[in-house]
Structure formats: structure tokens, C-alpha cells
Amino acid sequence: MRPNRTLAGRSCFGHLAWIHLLRAGSIACCLVPAGLAAQQIPAASPDAPTTTTPTTTTPTTTTPTTTAPSGEQTAPKAVPAPANGKAELAVSIAAREAASWSVAQQIWELAEPGYQEVKSSALLSKMLEEAEFRVERGVAGIPTAFTATYGEGKPVIGLLGEFDALPGLSQQATPVRAPREGATYGHGCGHHLFGVASASAAIAVAEQIKAGRLSGTVRYYGCPAEEGGGAKVFMVLAGLFKDCDAVFHWHPGSRNAAGDRSSLARMAVKFRFHGKSAHAAGAPEQGRSALDAVELTNHAAELMREHTPERTRIHHVITAGGDAPNVVPAFAEVYYYIRHPNGDVVRDLYRRLELCAQGAALATETRLETRFEGGIMELFPNVTLAKVAMDNLKALNDIEYSEEDRRFALKLQESLDAPLPLETIRQVEDRSGTIGMGSTDVGDVSWVVPTSGFSTACWAPGTPAHSWQAVACGGTPIARKGMDLAARVLAAGVWDLMSDPKLITQAQAEHRQRLDGREYRTLMLPGQKPPLDYRKPSRR
Fold this sequence. Notes:
By secondary structure, the chain is α+β, with helices and mostly antiparallel strands. The chain folds into two domains: 89-263 and 378-515, 3-Layer(aba) Sandwich (Aminopeptidase), CATH 3.40.630; 265-376, 2-Layer Sandwich (Alpha-Beta Plaits). 34% of the residues lie in helices and 20% in strands. A hairpin with a 5-residue loop joins β3 and β4. The longest helix has 23 residues, at 477-499.
């Protein structure tokens, strides 16, 4: 099922796309279903060199009828031709919508862990390479990270894309709990949609650059391991954003929303304790329990909570704690996240948490091994770019649920604690001036270049992120429609910036004013390398 919209108005069914034909120096228009358009306009050959100019394929001029859900043939609605080049972006995105959804479905099924997204990264880089982007793979010392660039000169506008999945969230595209056989990971944060929508938008912008309607450079950043791996931090430190003038990103959600919102900075660490095994009953005095050290660390952290600043968040999970109760554990590990709206506060909280672990090791006569897993800064808001995103989201939001979508959403909502009315998909929530309680490595990007993002409704209203319900929705037409809207909003935002350089100047001036002389200081420790194995099982 394709997104239920037209370019000129809203409809609960049908998805029509304008295809502009260049003939004998004049422009003719015809109305064709988006799926047919996608079939008639093939992607560029993957063997074509990245410096060649894309070719233009002329589709047939026959105007077909459309099929209503009941199966009846109905005449297509008359839709006025796009009045300007900005409207052509939606035409371009609609023409490849079926192909884009196919890539998203493949990434959803692959559900690859952070820094191990080999196939997902390859699918996205190929998609952009076939559109004649200049693709550079393995950037910042990360095998699955890449950049894809089209155009020349200023401005340089970046679009972020993500594609990693989450552990423990295997799920079929069903409204009831049903893990996929043989799978353990799932796209509980919708990154399969994130990566593809941004790529589709970048390609649409590239076509406008080629057509001479826009000038400048659009760059797609293929960013792995957002879920705890911090890949964008290493991409920032590698200088990949140094020539970028502005960046847009987005995220799937259960609401359409935009605004100059911040987030929580975060540091992550694994405390690994090494003790001495012994018979737990026969010779306990000869053992030194690594699990005791973990439990003592956790107790100290719990006592510390009372003496932390407001909005502090501390989470942990014991990733290794022994194998049998009659054996004193010689190895144990606990994995911690520390969060706060201010990165400097997080630095100090991390210092204090390290003291908790050191004290536990001293008290239990075990050896502490600290494995730092990375740090990411809070989002640095930009009102100018947030307004661009908000204006386009409000103007383009045309998501409508079909009856099939409604049945799926209502059934899935039976498993939610706080479902929202389905009609909320028609709303755009203003989150300006708020602080999101999550963390993202987009924060580090936002400290070095003006950045802003938004979310679109890709899940049944009220669905929480990082849940099996989010995974389930991600494989349905509900997600497909949200992804399509995101691609159009991103492309429109880039159009606005390239068409009006004063917006970029204003965004950059605001960025400098907010910094107020402060310099970007990464929360990564000196010499930190990408933790490429952070999703692999712990080794003793």
C-alpha cells in the first residue's frame, strides 16, 4: 500500500505523482500512479562513474485510470501542475517511493546491530551511488560509515541517515507480540526509515541541482551505531562536517513534531571486575566474587542518586554475573549510562561513578577493568532551522490512515499503556524550548554546525520507541507514509536554504550567539576509538 495522498490535496486512498515530460523544447504533463512512475524511471546504472550526469528517461504519455479500494475503476482527479521547482521535489520522491520502501523493508528485515550494519550500509550507499553521488565508504575509521555527495560549491547542506537496530526487539509486522524466528534484533527506533527517507530527499535535491534550479552541494551522512555507539562523534572529530553550512535530520515517532528542542548528554561505561573462583560452599573464603563488586558498585550508585542534579538519569544492566550459584564468580560486568541536559555535568557524574566502582573493587579485593563506551553531547537547538522544518512539516503533512491502517493501529493500541487518538496524526506538535529525555549523537554534530530535526508519525499514536510495537509498525504502510512525509519535508528544507542564503547566514549567526565563545568539547575520552564490538557478547 502506498502513502495515501495527492500533491494537491488529501485523499484516504490513491497516491498520484506528476511526471514532467520534456518534448520538443516544451513541457507536457501527465498523471500516472507513483508505482508506474517508479517502474518507468529506472535508477542510474551502478556501473556509471560518479562524475557523469544522470540521464533523463521519458515515460509514456498515457493517462491511466486509478483503482479504488473496492476494485472499481475511477478517473484520476485533476491536479494542477507544480507551480515551481520546490514542488518538483515531491514529484521526484513519489517517482521512487516504491523503490525506497523496498530498501527500507530490506533494512527492517536485516535488523543489524550497531557497527555491524554491513548489508544495510551497502544498500543505502548503493542507492545513492546509482543516483551518481560521490560515495566515500569507511570514513572516520568505521567500516559501515560513509558519505555521499552531489553538487559543487556552497552552500553545503547535510542530511543525516541512520540504520542500526536494537537488541531484544525481534518482531513481525503484526499488532500482537510475535518475534521473528531466528532474529534477536529489531528496528525499535525506526532507523530503517530514517536512513532511507534522508537518502530519498538527498536524491530529489540532487536532481534539482542537476536541472539548474538549485546550486550548491547536498551531502548524505551514513551514520551507524546511533544506539549507544556514537559514530557521529567520530565523524565530527574526523572533520567530516567542517565544510558543512547546515544539517537537517529527522526521526520516526508516533507524532508529527518539530521545534528547537534539546536532549540529554550521555556517557556510557562498562565496569568489568575480575575476581577468583572457588567452591561457594566448600571453600568460600578462597574466592573473591566479581559479582559482589558489581552489586556494591550498583548500591553505591543508588546512594549517589540522591546527591545528583535535577534531571540526572542513571541506568544500568548487569551483562555478566556468573554461571552457577555454587561457583564464586570470577568475572562480572555491569553496563552504565549517565545522562543530564548539560554535558559538563555528565563529565562530573562519570567521575563520581568511577569512584563507586573503584571503591567496590577495593572492598571486594577484585581487579577493576574500565571499558569506556563513549560519550555524546546534548542537542544544540537552532530556532532558525527549526522554523524551516516546522513550516514545511505543517505545509506537507497529509498523512491519512486507510481502514486497514486503522484496524492495525487500534489492535496494536490494546497492548499500550497510554495510546493516543488516531486523529493525532493530523496534528503537528510544537516542541520548541523543551528537552527530550533521550540522547543522540546528533548532539555532537549540532555543536559544530547549525542543526535541526523533526519527527513524523510512523507508528500507531502513543507507541513508545524501543518497543516491539514500534518494530511491528515499522513494517507496515503506517511507517511507509511517515517515511514518505519525512523525505518531502527534508527535501523542502534543503530547497529553502539553497534558495535563500539569508536563512543560512541567520542560522549560523544564531549558532555563534548561542555558543557565546564556548568551544565544542567531546565527551569521548582522549584517544578513544569507535567501539566497533560494543554490541558483541562480553568476553572475559
